[in-house]
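Write out this protein's structure.
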Amino acid sequence: MKELALKYGCNPNQKPSRVYMEEGELPIEVLNGRPGYINLLDAFNSWQLVKELKAATGMPSAASFKHVSPAGAAVGAPLSDTLKKIYFVDDVKLPLTPIATAYARARGADRMSSFGDFIALSDTCDEATATLIKREVSDGIIAPDYTPEALAILKAKRNGTYCVIKMDSTYQPAPIERKQVFGVTFEQGRNEIDLTGDNLFDNIPTENKDIPADAKRDLKIALITLKYTQSNSVCYVKDGQAIGIGAGQQSRIHCTRLAGNKADIWWLRQCPKVLALPFRSDIRRADRDNTIDVYIGDEYEDVLREGTWQNFFTEKPEPLTAEEKKAWLAQNTGVCLGSDAFFPFGDNIERAHKSGVQYIAQAGGSVRDDNVIETCNKYGIAMAFTGIRLFHH
């Protein structure tokens, strides 16, 4: 197939719309549903991300994409009982395979942002993974293959309209890429920078030069995720998964704050007081996610006021106080942070430290590198200068 007609472009008024190959065949096969323009942008970006994560770590990988940036990305590291609970997979009867675990992590990192996502898997989608996907609100999936059991589950999703795409894992794009903006054609070499080697972290200007193997893995996950995130962007990673992604902000400190706030929410969801919230049995998953998000935020009264809490809980919970939040957040350590370009000021490090960051990889090269290094030294943070910028637009 050389061409695929689409319903419309980014918006319903943008017609006609299609994807096509000037030479050769499209590297995808649509097994079910009808992908849209944005679906395919998400599919192709997310496929590249998980393919590179698998190459860098040797582990099955998954990504959850929304509007051409990842809401989550992860490798198939084992899940603790707490993570199984906050990702809502603790009741699954099937054993969680590595690729199912990678998906659970990618989807669970920022459940609010992943609502209605497009999924990418580095490995064959199996029955366990499809079972997890079945229960979530999602637009589609791209993977190199599907087991018969998984395909049957996915084809039944959304009354048979769920988008299922099979990707040719051997496909290699041309080295030059082009796109049009306002009738003008842009051309550039593809970003083929290799982010798989440990030599990325050889240049460590901080006093603390110890970056252990698991931190190097997580820093690679951060950098590869940023390679496919709309710039400016910053990514917090812990235990093999992104826990906070800040995308498309004009100021880097706003990226760091946005991603840091998401990382804090991820950690606060694991607080025993949050885990013990007495939810009604009939509450929908999306409503539960939103309620947790509000409960642990500054607007907690929006779900705890009289006449409202009864919609969500069997009994009125006590608020999570500022002191309780501060004490719980202080327990989050060993977090890695990647940036798609240099940090211009030490304020980024100050904010990162508040979310447990102990390892950083960034391009370096700012006129204020000395201030950034000094701030890292104040907190004992190990920081590597990669010399690599990863802007993506």
